[in-house]
């Protein structure tokens, strides 16, 4: 044994080949935590000190190769200064360079996921063999940073600048066939044949058949690009990537700059450039928030898996109510492999639902994500019906009829009589109390809410709503089914609007108050889009639909009259009264025309502006900061109330629900991270100053004031 540690070991085989196996004790996957890097450095020194070795194979003892650095360490590391981060990365560069400089050929056997630092360690060796089921990539830009362990240095020299820019800026996980085509790996084969293939490559390299030294020289030398080629490769890419990433996500463009600056430099000089930029990006708020987002996502997934372990298997599902929503739910279930019945009392609605599912499958086929066979198989998983004939064998039903409590209650009672005693019933409702709907059922313990967001195939969130009598078994089965559908389920407790809509409508309330005070709604949209929302509040209302907004607002006002009930007409009500429903009929705060792709194009409309003028009570100029504060404070305050009322279980779940459900700007980390970034005491002071003029919607809770007094953030 050359080296033995808790995370990796090195032994020599009979042919004097060193086999470095990474296998973290007590972990399901390999990750490059700081203690792993320490042992890797010790192992490399032991390899260098061992005489007569003829090669090195780096391999994994787990199903994945290495999933990346240990992201749980990032926040603690990023609290250090720039000098610390540069020094840390240069130390790791030294270890990786020592692997690259070993006096014999080297190869990595990539048996599974090799991401981030896991990908970068594969780039240190002369050759790479990859399992046909594995994936490789550098996703760091998705965390607001850049590859920091020479990914920006080695990958362009290995696969060319254009390919490297695509991989790094896109943060993609690349399949084995793509990696082979790009030149990132030398062979792709079944995982069982990897070790033999790695040893074969080393034998051929030692015999002189493969020139490993020439390969190494090319990978450690400057890029062979003249000035014109550099301009073509880098300047064009910077413009394209900047447009695609947007102003709030600087990491992809910074990665291109690092590749460009290091292109003509030696390995060590290029690595120093990379280390300095990595440190600078790691200290940004964007990186802090995106890393926090990753951690929150892990919390949400862990909670969902906990429910899933307790769940019965959902082999057969059904959706009650077809049309666009029912068709979207049927498509999502069928496309992920769970057969589904789609029932309606109306044949036209059935056809509309099937048309929606066919359209979505067709798009998958056009984009190359589906084969014709898989599309046919997916469509065969949807069975339309006008009767309850086959509902006796259904494990879970999603009721998706019209958003009317009496209609839903009647349909659910009828449905319960036509399913098995153990069948789980769920309601796809955005506002109606699950506890109230359960009153019509004989087995309320088998019932809960399952709120999908529109469009179903794009929106990742599903709110699973626990009513007063919903059993743990019903919640577990619904969470499991949502995960089978490829969705992110978050369990919330019952209240008007549940979590997401309860938080969204105070945001719309802030918008209505701004308009009444004289703010131009088009300017409000532009300010909030610049802030990071995918669309401003007026535009979002047009997408949601004014009829839906008026209905939901009435539910909120009834449930929370002190802060959500309003006297007089709002701009939203005026739009609704004048039959301007938004994109549903091409008239709302804006008017809409189809563009060349058949999508609604937003246009300014003087008629809408004239109608909004009816509710304006004064004329006032607002700064961008004023607009942001008046929009964001009520949204954040309601999120805080939901946490305090135990509607949602944790800050992580609250923030992820807003990001996945309504497009809260990810780079800001969520409503509660936004409050933490401002400072809880500062947020309370801002809310108090607005509440004096604008009322209870803005007023901090007593618990929040106590939190501010204690100096306690929502995240530790």
From TrEMBL:
<dbReference type="GO" id="GO:0016509">
    <property type="term" value="F:long-chain (3S)-3-hydroxyacyl-CoA dehydrogenase (NAD+) activity"/>
</dbReference>
<dbReference type="Pfam" id="PF00725">
    <property type="entry name" value="3HCDH"/>
</dbReference>
<dbReference type="InterPro" id="IPR008927">
    <property type="entry name" value="6-PGluconate_DH-like_C_sf"/>
</dbReference>
<dbReference type="InterPro" id="IPR050136">
    <property type="entry name" value="FA_oxidation_alpha_subunit"/>
</dbReference>
<keyword id="KW-0511">Multifunctional enzyme</keyword>
<keyword id="KW-0456">Lyase</keyword>
<dbReference type="Pfam" id="PF00378">
    <property type="entry name" value="ECH_1"/>
</dbReference>
<protein>
    <recommendedName>
        <fullName>enoyl-CoA hydratase</fullName>
        <ecNumber>4.2.1.17</ecNumber>
    </recommendedName>
</protein>
<keyword id="KW-0276">Fatty acid metabolism</keyword>
<dbReference type="Pfam" id="PF02737">
    <property type="entry name" value="3HCDH_N"/>
</dbReference>
<comment type="similarity">
    <text>Belongs to the enoyl-CoA hydratase/isomerase family.</text>
</comment>
<dbReference type="InterPro" id="IPR001753">
    <property type="entry name" value="Enoyl-CoA_hydra/iso"/>
</dbReference>
<keyword id="KW-0442">Lipid degradation</keyword>
<dbReference type="GO" id="GO:0006635">
    <property type="term" value="P:fatty acid beta-oxidation"/>
</dbReference>
<keyword id="KW-0520">NAD</keyword>
<dbReference type="InterPro" id="IPR006180">
    <property type="entry name" value="3-OHacyl-CoA_DH_CS"/>
</dbReference>
<dbReference type="GO" id="GO:0070403">
    <property type="term" value="F:NAD+ binding"/>
</dbReference>
<feature type="domain" description="3-hydroxyacyl-CoA dehydrogenase C-terminal">
    <location>
        <begin position="497"/>
        <end position="592"/>
    </location>
</feature>
<dbReference type="InterPro" id="IPR006176">
    <property type="entry name" value="3-OHacyl-CoA_DH_NAD-bd"/>
</dbReference>
<dbReference type="GO" id="GO:0008692">
    <property type="term" value="F:3-hydroxybutyryl-CoA epimerase activity"/>
</dbReference>
<dbReference type="InterPro" id="IPR006108">
    <property type="entry name" value="3HC_DH_C"/>
</dbReference>
<dbReference type="InterPro" id="IPR012799">
    <property type="entry name" value="FadB"/>
</dbReference>
<keyword id="KW-0560">Oxidoreductase</keyword>
<dbReference type="InterPro" id="IPR018376">
    <property type="entry name" value="Enoyl-CoA_hyd/isom_CS"/>
</dbReference>
<dbReference type="InterPro" id="IPR036291">
    <property type="entry name" value="NAD(P)-bd_dom_sf"/>
</dbReference>
<keyword id="KW-0413">Isomerase</keyword>
<comment type="pathway">
    <text>Lipid metabolism; fatty acid beta-oxidation.</text>
</comment>
<dbReference type="InterPro" id="IPR029045">
    <property type="entry name" value="ClpP/crotonase-like_dom_sf"/>
</dbReference>
<feature type="domain" description="3-hydroxyacyl-CoA dehydrogenase NAD binding">
    <location>
        <begin position="317"/>
        <end position="495"/>
    </location>
</feature>
<dbReference type="GO" id="GO:0004165">
    <property type="term" value="F:delta(3)-delta(2)-enoyl-CoA isomerase activity"/>
</dbReference>
<keyword id="KW-0443">Lipid metabolism</keyword>
<dbReference type="GO" id="GO:0004300">
    <property type="term" value="F:enoyl-CoA hydratase activity"/>
</dbReference>
<dbReference type="GO" id="GO:0036125">
    <property type="term" value="C:fatty acid beta-oxidation multienzyme complex"/>
</dbReference>
<comment type="similarity">
    <text>In the central section; belongs to the 3-hydroxyacyl-CoA dehydrogenase family.</text>
</comment>
